[in-house]
Task: structure prediction
Amino acid sequence: MSNGIIERFKVGLWHENPGLVQLLGLCPLLAVTSSFVNGFGLGIATLFVLIASNGLVSATRRWIQSEIRIPIYVLIIASLVTCIELIFKAWFPSLDRSLGIFIPLIVTNCAIVARAELFASRNSVGSSLIDGLVMGSGFAVLLVVIGAFRELLGQGSLFARLDMLTGGEPMRGLVLTDGGWLLAILPPGAFFSLALAIAAKNAIDRRRRENRQSAMPRRARNASN
Amino acid sequence: MNDTTVFRGGITLAVIAALCTTMVALTYQLTEARIVANEQAWLERSLQPALSGLFFDSGVTESKIIVPPPHELPGSEAAIIYRVFAKGEPVAALFVVSARDGYAGPIRILVGVETSGTVSGVHVLEHQETPGLGDRVESSKSDWVRQFDGRSLIDPAPGGWAIKGDGGQFDQLTGASVTPRAVIKAIKETLLYFETNSEAIFAETVADTDNKEKEP
Result:
């Protein structure tokens, strides 16, 4: 079983990563990843919404007629996002201020409705919760990586304003240089960073495939030709 | 799809809608008190930069006056004034105004002015300036706004309230001159407003503002 979970994490984080492979939820991905802490905050919020919506959709799937499934998904997801927004406002007020409209806009993240439709509506509650966890982690990790990359390039710092998660005085984080390559934190930087991430993933995948092929016995390769 | 399935679908939707509403209502109940406390704490914390170094014994956030537009303060939105008293005597007024001509929209700033006309502190509350350039007016990103502490319309004279590049006395930010120009202009206009209206500001009784706040 634990082996199965590891396999599913591989799928969510790498092979079918919602952001890198399925290219879902790009609007929040591009808009908020200007720093590590913003990416992390939205990643966690999306992860929780995805787990909870997968669980609820799966739990109610027996009673939902297929004609009205989409309005019901929208209803469930919208309520969950409202709850998450209230929780952020109560416990992480400055992060909520920094993410602004993108917390309520999790509703429109198509990665969530896609998982409800493709997975949760056809699988058991337990399996759907795991699906929410692995897909949500895949999305969150991508947000964090792109956020950290853009912050490092654009501001020359890392982990700035972590106080938005922990409370306390404003922190400037690890400051490496004063200022940086400004373009990285402007909107075009988001597109460049995502493109680099996708290219890197594809390059790694291709190298792996080539390694595997050259490792194959010669006869098998001849047979396949 | 016949009548029964339409009916069943309607019932399902209604039940799920009721469940979801309950869930949101419960979360709201749980978080409401904390959210109100956070908003209040945020307001008090954001006023802090203009209050530091002042001696006062009045509740600051209760002494609020809302000045609806049009007014002579900077900005086209309503301005807010908080008054600070010590033993019933006025100490300072904190202005929340908008610098109209920021690089990307208005910049909401807090300007604290002591009764003597000296700036007690400036803090940028909200802006959409370019990250890495104009956003260094934020006190969490650089100390630029600290250069106004203790200055007034005598030091320097109104003509000196400009960035050095425009022949004034204040530093600009590397790569950004529009943002500092807008902020300095807003501070100067606030000081000029305070010079002519300070008596009226402090004369307004708290009872008056209470009534104003109760209006919807």
In short: Chain A touches chain B through 34 residues (CB under 8 Å). The beta strands of chain A are 157-158, 174-175. The first strand of chain A starts at residue 157 and ends at 158.
